[in-house]
């Protein structure tokens, strides 16, 4: 039996909306001969069953085992063709590609003038909408046709096309270099998180300076600037320069607001830009600007003009709810954020085929922190277990490390210290294996390990010692990252001042409101 989540055809069929299924059947039924087609029978069967089971398909008698692979491939292609014809999917990029296909067909029929007319018109559309890769393809086809369709204007045309090809090629090369460095830096961030030492910092800095191409900002178009700001943003995140992260995330979002048509042509990049802007605002503790940005972001995403499709719906769910949680962390209003848990759980299940495990685990960690903030440590532990027990999680080693550290603290707070020694050893070994044992974590583990050897009346003094020690690292270039995942300082202050941790964070938020 093939796993339903791994069978591409089954996942595609299940992703279709009611209107898309209806359109597919209309598309197939446009020819009477398809009414009893095997691929339509297979489609109807896959639409009915809940999990993919090859035995069920073969038992239906629709197809023999030897023919199943070819029938599935044919059905997959027919669904894609139907989706391509759907007006919902007719964006500028698809329309440009369609016109290029039409021009190619006319060229192959020897109708050069008609082909050139379409190409000239669609080339302008491509350049206006920053689709420069397709624009370059169009120019290359124009050059081929001009060598076969001789006119009196060929010398001028040759110069014009040569100059256009050169300019588009240079712009595409610049975009490629900037997108390459951005992708590599993003990969570093996902794999290991922030830099942990001078050695890490030098390595990232050297890579960034070596691979960042020379440029004149005035020569860059929308697309090149977008990738440039992305590269700078990821570099800033990696080296924990959050003011720079805020600067370049703002440039990213402002770029869209200064080219509003691009919001609707590139909605995914608009969503991501706002998400990283909000994340940067969280790290620099700019709560008033965070709330204002989140409100504006939500207003645009929920407007009737904003593009709607499955991918955008999944990303909107992910970014909107993650940042709504972040707002409660920023303001210390953990109890007011509990309503989000059911929404997030429902959304994770709804979008499970389009959200990767890394982002799901990140949401679980945020929910765990939410429950920790209101003192519900047992529920906090349950969500942390989903991360700790996930053996397939290959990304964000730092997330896995801090999930274990928070789990230790939550076990202590919940009075579940009968297994604490075993967990301490397990966590210590894990951190060593990940090469992620730093000063803050060492002090936390040392404190928890010594709890068994101190009397109750000495506890306050031990909290004070740990607090004094950790305050040294609050603004340390590498150690401060621990406080991004878990506000240990506020937790200690809550014990020292006999106040709930949420109250401590709220008081701090009120003190720094700007």
Tell me what the structure shows.
This protein is an all-alpha fold and 514 residues long. Helix content is 73%, strand content 0%. The chain is globular, with a radius of gyration of 28 Å.
Low-confidence stretches: none
Q: Helicity, in percent?
A: over 70%
Q: What is the multimeric organization of the chains shown? A: single chain
Shape: globular
Distance between the termini: 58 Å
The helix-strand sequence is HHHHHHHHHHHHHHHHHHHHHHHHHH
Give the amount of beta strand, in percent: under 5%
Number of helices: 26
Structural class: mainly alpha
Q: What would you report as the Rg, rounded to the nearest angstrom? A: 28 Å
The biggest beta sheet reads: none
Counted beta strands: 0
Per-chain topology:
Elements (H helix, E strand, L loop, with lengths): L7 H8 L2 H11 L9 H11 L5 H6 L5 H21 L6 H17 L3 H17 L3 H15 L7 H39 L5 H14 L10 H17 L3 H17 L1 H6 L1 H17 L3 H15 L8 H22 L7 H12 L6 H17 L3 H12 L8 H17 L6 H14 L5 H12 L8 H13 L10 H4 L2 H9 L4 H11 L3
Task: Supply database-style keywords.
globular; 514 residues; mainly alpha; 0% strand
Concise structural overview:
The chain has 514 residues and is mainly alpha-helical. The protein has helices spanning 8-15, 18-28, 38-48, 54-59, 65-85, 92-108, 112-128, 132-146, 154-192, 198-211, 222-238, 242-258, 260-265, 267-283, 287-301, 310-331, 339-350, 357-373, 377-388, 397-413, 420-433, 439-450, 459-471, 482-485, 488-496, 501-511. It has 26 helices and no strands.
């Amino acid at each position: 039996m093939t796993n339903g989540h791994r069978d591409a055809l089954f996942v595609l069929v299940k992703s279709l909306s009611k209107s898309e299924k209806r359109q597919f059947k209309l598309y197939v039924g446009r020819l009477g001969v398809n009414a009893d087609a095997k691929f339509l029978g297979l489609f109807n069967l896959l639409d009915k069953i809940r999990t993919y089971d090859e035995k069920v398909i073969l038992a239906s008698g629709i197809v023999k085992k030897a023919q199943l692979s070819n029938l599935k491939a044919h059905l997959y292609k027919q669904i894609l063709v139907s989706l391509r014809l759907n007006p919902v999917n007719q964006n500028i990029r698809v329309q440009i590609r369609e016109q290029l296909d039409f021009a190619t067909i006319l060229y192959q029929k020897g109708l050069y003038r008609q082909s050139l007319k379409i190409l000239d018109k669609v080339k302008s559309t491509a350049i206006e909408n920053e689709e420069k890769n397709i624009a370059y393809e169009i120019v290359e086809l124009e050059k081929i046709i001009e060598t076969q369709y001789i006119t009196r204007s060929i010398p001028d045309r040759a110069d014009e096309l040569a100059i256009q090809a050169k300019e588009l090629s240079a712009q595409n090369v610049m975009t490629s270099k900037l997108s390459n460095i951005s992708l590599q830096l993003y990969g570093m961030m996902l794999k290991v998180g922030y830099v942990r030492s001078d050695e890490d910092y030098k390595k990232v800095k050297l890579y960034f300076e070596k691979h960042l191409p020379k440029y004149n900002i005035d020569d860059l178009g929308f697309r090149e600037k977008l990738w440039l700001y992305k590269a700078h943003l990821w570099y800033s995140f990696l080296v924990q320069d959050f003011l720079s992260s805020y600067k370049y995330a703002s440039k990213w979002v402002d770029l869209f607001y200064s080219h509003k048509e691009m919001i609707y042509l590139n909605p995914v990049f608009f969503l991501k830009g706002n998400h990283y802007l909000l994340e940067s605002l969280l790290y620099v503790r700019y709560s008033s600007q965070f709330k204002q940005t989140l409100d504006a972001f939500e207003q645009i995403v929920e407007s009737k003009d904003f593009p709607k499709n499955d991918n955008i719906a999944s990303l909107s769910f992910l970014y909107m709810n993650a940042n709504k949680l972040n707002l409660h962390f920023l303001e210390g209003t953990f109890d007011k954020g509990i309503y989000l848990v059911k929404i997030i759980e429902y959304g994770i299940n709804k979008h499970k085929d389009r959200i990767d495990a890394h982002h799901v685990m990140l949401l679980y960690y945020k929910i765990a922190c939410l429950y920790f903030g209101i003192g519900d440590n047992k529920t906090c532990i349950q969500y942390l277990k989903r991360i700790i027990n996930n053996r397939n999680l290959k990304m964000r080693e730092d997330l896995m490390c801090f999930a274990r550290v928070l789990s230790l603290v939550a076990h202590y707070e919940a009075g579940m210290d009968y297994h604490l020694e075993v967990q301490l050893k397990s966590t210590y070994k894990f951190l060593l294996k990940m090469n992620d044992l730093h000063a803050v974590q060492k002090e936390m583990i040392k404190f928890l390990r010594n709890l068994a050897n101190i009397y109750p009346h000495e506890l306050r003094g031990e909290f004070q010692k740990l607090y004094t020690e950790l305050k040294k690292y609050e603004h340390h270039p590498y150690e401060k990252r621990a406080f991004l995942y878990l506000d240990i300082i506020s937790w200690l202050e809550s014990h020292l001042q006999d106040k709930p941790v949420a109250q401590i964070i709220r008081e701090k938020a009120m003190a720094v409101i700007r």
